[in-house]
Amino acid sequence: MYIRLSDSAIDQELDVTVSPLSSDAEVSDDDASQTEYVMSDDGSEVSVYVPFASAASSSHIDATAAPDITIPSTYSPPTPPSASQQLPQQHASPPPLPHQGQADTFVWRDCDDFEPDVPVFDDANAGIQAEFPCSPTSKAMNFFTAFFDVGLMSLLVKETNEFREFSINFGNRSVREEAKMLEWTAVTIPELYVWFALTMLMPHVRKHRLKDYWSKDYLLTTPVFGRHMSRDRYFDILSYLHFSTSIGPQPNDRLYKIRPILSMLLEKIRMFFLPFQKVLVDESLVLFRGRLSFIQYIPSKRHRFGIKFFVICDCKTGYVLDFVVYTGTDVDVASNDPMDFLGQLSSG
User: Fold this and answer.
1) Which of 31, 129, 249, 326 is 20 to 30 A off residue 16, Cα-Cα?
2) Domain limits of the chain?
3) Contacts of 50 (CB under 8 A, 6+ apart)
4) Could you give the CA distance from residue 184 to residue 15 in angstroms, rounded to a whole number?
């Protein structure tokens, strides 16, 4: 509740005691929400109003329940707040900017004769590095084995053989029965090199089906395939070719099945060549029509369906310096920035 004093009581600064009205006093309809008390001192009377929480609960004032309220004689009205304590106006001027008043710390001048400090690019170390094992006289196989070296191929052979054993022991019933029926021998590194060579040759000699590459029909025959690997052996390796069996599903990496091989390949790409001054970043679409959650459709490309790559190339030589497989808008690329910032790729 609150007490409202009349101006006369405040001006006289009286030491008064609040005494309630008699118990027979009724609350008027106009003041149904407040009760009137009389304060007396030396015959002076001042009206004080104390509102009820709910006037409808009782029609009479309980004189015995009303407390005595003493107003000290030293009472003085509150002083208004100073200018510094007042609340800001609605259209008050905004606070000064952090650099306001410090214009003398930087002097603006005419920039017609401004010449930026352009660093000189040193291309002494650009180009092919000493770690690259090939020379201008090397054969195509030497360039291929520079990136797909024995270490990488050993990992592929190990994972492929282990996956075949896993399919026999832990695969479903149809897979186990099919695997047991095959006359399987462990894959070797030279055999896997031949398998990759035949696979890369297929786009140069297009056939309707994979089996047609081993066809004996004189209109379709391509003897080179059957000369180096039988049809059944090629399909056996194709069925069990694997890149990673020890790494389980990763919620933030859709490429976890090929991540070890991809990391090894990118390491060699970055090690063998340093770029010249001009580089180019662009997207590339690799044709793919299989089942994949992040397959892209770009009508402007020659192959409208496929896997999208973000590629950075050296403009002088066309060498691919690095690439990122686009697997969705949540692809984060960690940088070597000392502030440890991350960049996010978006579909353009």
Assistant:
1) 31
2) 4-71, 127-272, 275-344
3) 1, 2, 3, 34, 35, 37
4) 112
